[in-house]
Each structure stands twice: as structure tokens, then as C-alpha cells.
Amino acid sequence: xxxxxxxxxxxxxxxxxxxxxxxxxxxxxxxSTLSTPKLFVSGLSRLTTDEKLKEVFSSFGxxxxxxxxxxxxxxxxxxxxxxxxxxxEDAEKAREGMNAKxxxxxxxxxxxxxxxxxxxxxxxEPQPSETGFRTNKTIGWCG
Length: 143
What we know:
alpha+beta, five-stranded antiparallel beta sheet, two-stranded antiparallel sheet, 3 helices, 7 strands, RBD_domain_sf
């Protein structure tokens, strides 16, 4: 019986410490100010859909778009998405209201969306040599 009570005390103590740590972490993430009404939502469950994201975030203001990013090949969620509001004020309310909260059993984080970085231009396709072979950088020669 003593083991059970000390184990319970250990669990209770660690949950208090973890919630303090959790709240400090959440407040650190909220320190940057928004410059755009678009938010990046990370930590999404693989089961979260566009509709669920829209339903949860629509209570904070006029939501223009809610999009879960999915893998092209498998069609499964990549675990993050974007929500766009009509105003920066609505986005700020959503960020404060949903950051470090549970959605579909997972803790999500809401941060300002960053502009997409430009991709490098595609490399030209290597041309076959006179012998009909071309070089493949991964495995060597192929025919």
C-alpha cells in the first residue's frame, strides 16, 4: 500500500511540474507578434481533417481558410496545417485560444505562418552519351 501512495504522489508531483513547464513553453511561443492573418498549426493528429480544423478555429473570428496539408502519394495528413483569418486581430485571438491545446487527442501549437521559401530551379535531365548510357548519380551507370 505504501508503494501505491508514493507512486501516486510521484505521478501527482510530476504532472504539476510538467504543467508548469508546459505553460512556460506555451508562453515563450506566444511572444512573437503577428504580421499576417495566416497561422501555422503543428502537432495535428493524422485523423484531423480540413472540416475539423475549420470547426475548431471558426469560433475565434471570420475564418477564410482552414487547410490540413496532406502527402500527395498517400493522401494522409502530414501533421500540420494552416488557418487564415480576415483580420490579424482574429488570428491573434485564435493563437492565444488554441496554442498548446488538445485537438483530436494531440497537443497542437499555433504560430505565425512564415512566407514560403523559393525552391531551387529543377536540374536539367542528363542526356544519353554516344553509347546510349547516361550517368545516374545515385547508382552509377544505367542503360
